[in-house]
Amino acid sequence: MKKHNFYAGPSILPQFTLDETVSAIRDFAGTGLSLLEISHRSKQFVAVMDEATAMFKELLNIPEGYSVIFLGGGASLQFCMVPFNLMNKKAGFLVTGEWATKAHKEAKNFGEAVEVASSKDKNFSYIPKNFNVPKDLDYFHITTNNTIYGTQLRKDLDVGVPLVADMSSDIFCRPLDVSKYALIYGGAQKNLAPAGVTFVIIRNDILGKVDRKIPTMLNYQTHIDKGSMFNTPPVMPVFSALQTLKWLKAQGGVAAMEKINKHKAELLYAEIDRNPYFKGTVEKEDRSWMNICFVMSDEHKALEQEFLDFATSKGMVGIKGHRSVGGFRASTYNALPLESVKALIDTMKEFEKMKS
Question: Residue 298 has what DSSP assignment?
């Protein structure tokens, strides 16, 4: 039976990425050595790092004056590194979910961390609108996609202060105007690569403005100056990320992915809204294209486990909702084929027919 992988992260990767990584694990770049045992200083891997950096810049149309680096520690380390490097006195936060909350909490260790707006009042079921960003902030932090609750911000904000964005789960899902951001970061294990590498896109002139002394490993400038090679980088995830970037380019780039992602999401949301056994959990205008969350309708709540078991029997993998919210979550990242979305829809329809 074919498996349809809806895990939220680590998550589905393009078959091209898997195949190329497996091949390189056996013999990397004709060296006779495995990717897992090659020196990160070898000319073959340095070429991988350089190409991955260049393809990031190409696919996202990153303007001059920005650097792209690859780090370890996941997005959670960035919750610390961002304020360490950018926060002199005060930063603002748009609190829209679990990860935004954690970023806000961590920043409190470095200065005044202001909650500019939050959707916690309605269990993070919407993206706040019409909020005013104070002009005395060192930066304003947003989380563009919320994997647990299923909301997404799909526009590039104009806020009048340096804008920082956690794009762990929706990078490359749509075109970006990178010039509107001072820094973009994300763990790669949701929409780009295996767990272990974190990407950071930094506008160079935002650095060097804090008064505190920054530890060498936590200083962005360290990694920019050393081309992400100050310490041993996560070699295999960087290689896999490059393969995904190649795959993305072959699909037509992020503009093409935006159309595909929109179509996949619209199909699944339409079924959620139509099927009397299910209902959505967030405001329709803020629904995520990457993490589609839904629950059983009120009159059918008792059937949650039965549907989960049924869907599992049909090859649906990873659709159980996050433990903190329950229900279901279908993560429809770039690499998830339309076929899998249609298979889930068919499963929902079959369940409805079976129970009606």
Answer: G
Query: What is the set of active-site residues?
Result: 99, 166, 190
- Looking at residue 287, what DSSP letter applies? B
Q: Can you say how many angstroms the Cα of residue 342 is from the centroid of all Cα atoms in its chain?
A: 23
Write the pLDDT tens digit of every residue in 278-332. 999 999 999 999 999 999 999 999 999 999 999 999 999 999 998 888 899 999 9
CA distance 201 to 185: 6
Q: What are phi and psi of 39, to 5 degrees?
A: -70, 135
Task: Provide the pLDDT for residue 323.
Answer: 83
Cβ-based neighbour number of residue 314 at 10 Å: 17
Per DSSP, the three-state class of 48 is helix
80: which 2 tokens?
């610390």
Sheet strands (E) in the chain: 4-5, 66-71, 90-95, 112-118, 139-143, 145-146, 151-152, 163-166, 183-187, 198-203, 278-280, 291-296, 316-317, 328-331
Name the residue among 297, 298, 292, 296 with its Cα closest to residue 308. Answer: 296
What is the share, in percent, of the chain residues with pLDDT greater than 90?
98
What are the phi and psi torsion angles at 268 (to 5°)?
-70, -40
pLDDT at 178: 98
Domains recognised in the chain with CATH numbers? 15-251 (3.40.640.10), 253-355 (3.90.1150.10)
Alpha carbons 196 and 165: distance in angstroms, whole number: 19
The verdict on whether omega for the bond into residue 128 sits within 30 degrees of 0, i.e. cis, is no
Tokens 């629950």, located at residue: 295
Whether the Cβ atoms of residue 72 and residue 187 lie closer than 8 Å to each other: no
pLDDT score, position 326: 87
The Cα–Cα gap between 93 and 23 comes to 43
In this structure, what token pair is assigned to residue 52? 């991955």
Residue with tokens 């970006």: 176
**Collapsed DSSP state (helix, strand, coil) of residue 215:** coil
